[in-house]
Design a protein that fits this description.
It is built from 5 helices and no strands. Helix 2 (17-32) runs antiparallel to helix 5 (66-91). It has one domain (2-91). By secondary structure, it is mainly α.
Length: 103
């Protein structure tokens, strides 16, 4: 029975890698980041100044562990790669379509 569970998990992981990567990133981030400190520091940032918010995010990422920085970089690259791939897929349409629409 464990072999069946293993095969199902393997097939699901290969079919939906983005979902598992997102879940892995969120789980690791929750374990490595102190949410209490983030909210305490976020309260000191002015709400209407975008440069202060950018500086806060930059300093927060700079001062985290290298493991979380690597995970975030991989997550951003994976999301960007998926987005570019989907945009390219949707951009392939034929302006001079000879096919007829069927209802």
């Amino acid at each position: 029975m464990s072999r069946i569970y293993f095969e199902y998990t393997k097939n699901t992981l290969l079919e939906y890698p983005d979902y598992f990567m997102s879940a892995f990133f969120v789980a690791t981030a929750v374990m490595l980041v102190s949410i209490r400190d983030v909210f305490a520091n976020l309260a000191s940032v002015p709400e209407h100044n975008l440069s202060d918010i950018f500086n806060f995010l930059f300093v927060a990422m700079r001062d985290t562990s290298w493991i979380l920085q690597a995970l975030l970089a991989g997550f951003v690259l994976r999301v960007a790669f998926s987005g570019v791939r989907k945009v390219q897929k949707n951009m392939k349409f034929d302006w001079f379509a000879t096919k007829r629409f069927r209802y």
